[in-house]
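dumping this here before i forget
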Amino acid sequence: MDIYEQIVQLRRDGRRGAVATIVNVRGSIPSFQTAKMLVRDDGSIVGTIGGGCVEADVWQAAREVMESEKPRTLKFDLNQDPKYDTGLVCGGTLEVFVEPVLPPALLYVFGAGHVALNVCRTASGAGFEVVVTDDRSSYATKERFPAAREVHALDFDEATTKLEPNEASYIVIVTRGHRDDMRLLRWAVQTPARYVGMIGSKRKVIAIFKALQAEGVPAHLFDRVYSPVGLDIGAVTPEEIAIAVTAELIAFRRHVTVALPHLSWFKGAQEVDDSSPASDTEESVDLDEHLPDHSGH
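structure:
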């Protein structure tokens, strides 16, 4: 099987893998420079870098690389390490570069107003493949969203039965109404998507959290929900909000570990009394309330 065709197929299927390439050779080794091996997420391989203990070590490293999504370079000295002594004439050194093969970063945007429009622009420019869905056919058009991979004019309940986010997917909910946001969030937290974000004020977020929990949605499912969506950079306009949202998406895609100014109110929402003065005085700008025709969504 052609290894390059297999890499393309792996990405099309939304799966992960890692490619190992011999990048430097000195002396005699049981393969050749530029030899490649693809390790799929199920552990199967295509190609070889020579077999034996070296290949077994590289296979293990490839599994780790596809999980961390960060490349590694491995060095092997077949002269010095006794575990590589198989009685063969090989006795050189080699370096193997292992890089992740990742599925496209697919972003599902629900809503087709001003915020969604700008999120599509900024996120697609950052390398995300965007799928836009709205229940208004006049808004959900390819002409309005030329950068989107797909645009669907569907009732949101219908959309949730047709769209299938995987572990490499991101979901951003920016519809024009609380009811749509809530039913989409109910679905989103039960998908394997790696990121779920929803626009909204503190009051709205906590109200939705409590309503869904009362329906029986387990509270722990909200631990990965970011709402208000985006980094806290003081964004006000739809264009600024889109930048804040895209920045948060990039941080997740790149596995940023440093502290970031997230504003997720789902975490700890059970302990917050929505009727307290703080829930009003600390409320952030809610686009639902400040864009009269909801076109901000």
